[in-house]
Amino acid sequence: MKKNGQRKLFGCNLAGTLGLAVSVSVISVSVQAATVTWIGGSSRWDYGSNWDIGVQPAPGDSVYLTQSDATNRVVSYYNTLYPNATDILGSLTLNATGTGTMTLDQTSYAHPLYTTNEYIGTTGSGAYVQSLGANSVTGYLHLGYNASGNGSYDLSGSGNLSAGYEYIGYAGTGTVTQSGGAHTVANYLHLGYADTSSGRYDLSGGNLSARYEYIGVNGTGIFNQTGGAHTLTNNLSLGTYATGNGTYTLSGGTLDVGGDIVNGAGVSTLNIDGGTLSVAGGDIDVDFLALGHASGTSGSHSLSGTDTLTASFEYIGEYGAGSFTQSGGANTVAGNLLIGYRETGNGSYTLSGGDLSASFETIGSSGTGAFTQSGGNNTINTNLTIGASSTSSGSYNLSGGNLSAGNAFIG
Fold this sequence. Notes:
Layout: E1 2-3, E2 6-7, E3 11-13, E4 23-25, E5 35-37, E6 43-44, E7 62-67, E8 73-76, E9 89-96, E10 102-106, E11 113-120, E12 125-130, E13 134-143, E14 150-155, E15 160-168, E16 173-178, E17 182-191, E18 198-203, E19 207-215, E20 220-232, E21 236-238, E22 245-257, E23 261-263, E24 267-272, E25 276-279, E26 283-291, E27 298-303, E28 308-316, E29 321-326, E30 330-339, E31 346-351, E32 355-363, E33 368-386, E34 393-410
Parallel strand pairs: 5-7, 6-8, 7-9, 8-10, 9-11, 10-12, 11-13, 12-14, 13-15, 14-16, 15-17, 16-18, 17-19, 18-20, 19-20, 19-21, 20-22, 21-23, 22-24, 22-25, 24-26, 26-28, 27-29, 28-30, 29-31, 30-32, 31-33, 32-33, 33-34
Antiparallel strand pairs: 1-2, 3-4
């Protein structure tokens, strides 16, 4: 029988009549995990009347917070019955296929939730909002599971989210907004996993850590960091496979990459508009690098030692201000190195050591550009252009090192 959310079966064997010995035995039974579905409106998790089985879910259950009508439902997570790390749900699914919404809210009570897998927005939409307590996913967290799915996660305050693996936009659309709290991915974090998918992560505060990250695996992945601390144990991959398109924009906070920043077979873009970037592996390989990508921003990068930077195009001061300092290592640009790209762009490159090579270098494309060389080697395979348009201003100051160019044009 079911009583107060506990599923037990007792058996009694009355041996004899009154006055004789009575033995009571507990019959051990295997309790099957149940499929438990929300049938209530906006209410608390622990009220049994909100569930189709009459009690709140128990460890091992597959839980569905689903709806298909026009009602907006908010499930407030309150759970004192199963507060331990051993009280793990089999799975949790949030999905609204009607015009209404389905939201799991963990902002009023700091009770922990433990699951094996979570699916937020499978064929429809789902939202998880957390500012308190812990949401611990031992296996996989999916946002936007199917192509039509749309899942969102809002982490703030002192909330703690952890998962083994995460897919932000598995086959559909996934969005994570983090302004506080702590988010830990034990293994891989993916944004835009399938070719039909789109994943976005906005980090403005709190802490995010993962072992590996793949931004734009087969689909589109966008990571915007304006604050907070982002730490990777190993590599950050942008545009992993041929159909992948990954963009990382850093304009505040800190990004610490324990390995390298790597480009796969897709399209990769790294925009540095502020903040602090540290790449322990020392190597960056991207299609597009922009320092000062957005108007009104200021981005910088330094290259030293044996570190390497490889890009198809580099924009030092695209719409904003950008500065590149190289005292060692190698910077290889397959296409054009543009310093002061747009009319509002203001870029500078300081070379005192190491090797810089590009097919083209334009100093002052439409904006203001300055190149200062006191050492190292600057090799331009085709054209060096200084002051390319009527709106631009360019200068090249050479006091040491070696400069080699196929052709030089001074506007």
